[in-house]
């Protein structure tokens, strides 16, 4: 293998590690990460071997003759959910195959995707709070209960965002958010007639439910990725425990 081909392998290896890291951090399951990386590598004529854990991706890139290889690993960023990244990288991988993209084109597209702005903060707070109010209505909450849940979800999510920004432990951030939402929703329950605002108190923390980690955990376990599936499942259970602890703390404070 000449120097130019070796350099291409090294550059492609780093690009694929970046792709895997972005997908993992954006909420992709293990199968999707493996398929996307393999699709791009195949387009350049290389084979891949991967070891994917919750916080690290190890990749080996092999030439057709197996005489040359590239091996490296990359730590992933803290996990969240970013559908812009997920859909953007998926579309990019298919265009790499169909249009024979160069490494420079892939790098440019990755730079564009990572530079995409998030939704405005006020919009996220408002829409998440509206979703919480809608869940309250599904639980037979009154219009007053829906207003309570809107306020509780808004303040709870605001507290979570601020504690994340200040660098608190991720599970503590969930606990503080759940406690804030439960304190807001529990106050009318404490002051008014007993059981009058129970739907509001019961649904005020639904915006914190770890849906993506639990879904990915189930998906990974079904696909045979037992280790990372168990890690993601335990992560989801700890988040659920933090939510329950926040609700319990509010119950103890208000004696309700």
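Q: What amino acid sequence fits the structure above?
A:
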């Amino acid at each position: 293998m000449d120097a130019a081909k070796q350099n291409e392998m090294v550059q492609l290896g780093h690009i694929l590690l970046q792709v895997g890291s972005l997908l993992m951090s954006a909420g992709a399951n293990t199968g999707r990460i493996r398929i996307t990386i393999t699709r791009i590598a195949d387009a350049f004529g290389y084979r891949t071997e991967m070891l994917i854990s919750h916080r690290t991706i190890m990749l080996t890139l092999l030439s057709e003759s197996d005489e040359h290889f590239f091996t490296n690993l990359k730590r992933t960023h803290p996990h969240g959910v970013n559908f812009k990244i997920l859909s953007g990288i998926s579309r990019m991988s298919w265009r790499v195959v169909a249009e024979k993209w160069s490494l420079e084109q892939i790098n440019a597209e990755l730079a564009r995707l990572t530079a995409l702005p998030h939704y405005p903060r006020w919009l996220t707070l408002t829409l998440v709070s509206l979703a919480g109010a809608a869940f309250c209505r599904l639980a037979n909450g009154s219009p007053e209960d829906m207003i309570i849940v809107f306020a509780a979800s808004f303040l709870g999510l605001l507290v979570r965002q601020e504690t994340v920004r200040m660098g608190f432990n991720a599970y503590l951030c969930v606990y503080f958010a759940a406690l804030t939402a439960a304190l807001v929703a529990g106050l009318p329950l404490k002051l008014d007639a007993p059981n009058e605002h129970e739907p509001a108190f019961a649904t005020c923390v639904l915006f914190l439910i770890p849906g993506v980690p639990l879904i990915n955990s189930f998906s990974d376990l079904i696909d045979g990725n037992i280790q990372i599936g168990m890690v993601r499942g335990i992560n989801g259970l700890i988040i659920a425990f933090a939510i329950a602890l926040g609700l319990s703390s509010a119950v103890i404070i208000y004696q309700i």
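Q: And what stands out in the fold?
A: The first helix runs from residue 3 to 26.
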